[in-house]
Amino acid sequence: MTFTDKQTNNAAAAVSPTSEAELAGFIAERHARAAPIRVVGGSTRFQSEAIAADQTLTSRRLSGIVTYEPGALTLIARAGTPIEEIEAAVAAEGQAFAFEPMDHRKVLNTKGFPTVGGMVSANISGPRRIHAGACRDHLLGVRFVDGRGRVIKNGGRVMKNVTGLDLGKLLCGSHGTLGVLTEVALKTLPVAESQQTLAFHDISVEAAIEIFATALATPFEVSGTAFRSGTAWLRIEGLSPQVDYRRERLSALFRDREIDIVNETDSRMLWRGLRDLHHFAGSNVPLWRILVKASEAPAVVARLNALGGDVSLDWGGGLIWFESSANGSAVRNAAGRGQAMLLRRGTLPNSDSFPPEGASIARLSAALRQTFDPAGILNPGLMDK
Amino acid sequence: MSTIAMPEPDVGILARAPQIIAALESVLSAGTVISSPEETRAYECDALTAYRCPPLAVVLPRTTEEVATAMRVCHELRVPVVPRGAGTSLAGGALPTADSVIIGTMRLREILEVDTANRYIRVQTGITNLAVSAELEAEGFFYAPDPSSQLACTIAGNIAMNSGGAHCLKYGVTTNNLMGVRIVMATGDIVELGGPLLGTSGLDLIGLICGSEGQLAIVTEATLRIVPKPEGARPVLIGFDSAETAGECVGGIIRSGLLPVAIEYMDDVCLRAVEAFVKTGYPNCAAVLIVEVEGSEAEIDHQIARIRLIAEELNPVEFRASRTAEESLAIWKGRKSAFGAMGRLGDYLCLDGTVPVSKLPHTLKRIGELSKAYGLEVANVFHAGDGNMHPLILFNANAPGELERAEEFGADILRLCVDAGGCLTGEHGVGIEKRDLMTKQYTADDLAIQMEIKSVFDPAWLLNPAKVFPLEVSQPHREAAARCP
Question: Which of B423, B434, B458, B469 to mutate to test the interface with A (most CBs of A within 10 A)?
Fold first, then answer.
């Protein structure tokens, strides 16, 4: 597998500073020479391949939890901290990241370990995003080094903070093109003590979207809404009596349909697999991540199916995963008003990774990149093609 | 005299006032431009009433296109623009300068689309916060951010300040409930960002616009996330004989795995004022918490039982759980009338710093010490669940020097919040009020990049002048902007 080989080569050549000051010094020097850098975290995703740079920089040795206050639901960690380390620390207090970040290793066949900085820079959010919001909604503050080598902080560690412009949101999902994160502050939330999943078998995409819309309009805080191969799942979480009550109410709402109940441990396993796309693992066929308006999902899925391939849905139908050998422009046409990103590239060209932007948004984004990184050294060619 | 400086108006612009007004009138529909001194005076301040200055003119457009036309004229004539929602800012975020044109959103009131299947509403931003939820009532949905000015404040202002409210502990603040915006740039260009999709593959420009206090653009339309109404909600009231114990109870509830919609805090000064004003029957003690939980009747009972267990460990003076809608109203009545009750005691400054929840007891203690040192009484009423404090400093505006002393006291409290690991403003915004304290929270580089971003959106630095960035710090940027063609 060429990906893995390249990944290994990159890691060998990677610069891995042990302090923020060292990282800032390195970037300042590259800025002065206008020498491009490929910025990576734990190298568990492939997007770094699109980048035209011979030098890799990783934040993975800026590692460790700085502060964790369970009573304030806040955690501050250095960017290179493995998510596993954070998940273990917060799980010991019965907490977690509510946005349920996905682990890409299985579906992308990568080694390495996902870092919290990588998670924030790609705004990685899993099935619970539909109820709890995305990674960006749980980000409280950032420290980063911009493309000139300036160390900048924004936001803080408190949940309400409107002091000045919100750069955290801008950095979250910028894929390392605006700055290199050195520290992030995130909100943690208590893990629900109980969960159950309602499974609806042998149904169409149209029926699934209808079930999702109906369930998400109830006050029962449905926290997972996924569909694959004719089965739709609704996850409910909460205090134990609450979950029983919500299951009863939802079952009554869908009394015309046959419903299987998946309990506790099995439910957790199910959603882990859906979150990490285990159903698309073990292949190198291109895999697309397509954001659509949920009510338009059936039409988009019909067009995608016509291209040949396999789909699964999440976020109430607002997120379509599509595994197919079809070419990029065909997939983008089928996505219509949706946005299609390439998660697993397969044999498709780098230029397919991000969808094209409208002229005025592209202009604004380019001007912002120029502001953060005047020499264009941070992940050039990734988002700015 | 007040202590926050505003720049001298540009005499060149003042001299051209008749031409500027004529230029605006020539391209906008009749009644859109207001310029008589009797009428512009109504716009001389927002809710930070100690600072007043009538603008050169006020423009009240009815469409995004009219906003764009007005912006284009102001940009061509190099006239500063002050965006304004309902003017309820407590931070002076909508304070005009004499050489500025206000562009107000209050006539942009249309509901453009309600989509319950995809759970959003699209509105023009001059609509009030409460009117959005009212529109959704029959559908069983609501719009979650609920600033206490929600009857009057507009969505435009909420977006500009990233407003919060009592219920954001569970539902988040404006930025967590904003899916898309239509903005008018300083040049008059109209740009659409986001919409019904759950995110973007590009840069999160909506996240940047939200909370930018009118420094980057005017938001004329918004796509807002809507949430199903809970089956029910009921509060409990818990009284404690010390602020520290109340603080401990807040931490205990949050750690327990419960997620209340609101945890509100009132101290003894506030309790006495409220009791004298509306006869709440609150216990006479050092601190009261109001904790609200949601769900079905049984779910609420279950959660209240858990809160009782946590509270009773701490020997509360009183634990009162609401059983009926009337009892819920009675518990909330005192909290909701707190600001009115304080107003009866005299003038006050309402602050908005945030501290980590674990630092609440320490911060409250230091505020008490500062209160003695300044000789000014302070009341504390705030959103304890997220550490967002609202100390109210009582003073007499007619006593010479007392406003200045109150402002210095307020600045000390905000510095205290920053030193405790918190921030200058949790939900009111910087405006002019906290502008000169920004250097306490941010380094020169932290502020430089924010100002560079402003220059991307507003190269001539015409939007909402003299807010957010300390004048000294922004001077080189403003001078460079003045030189650019």
Answer: B423
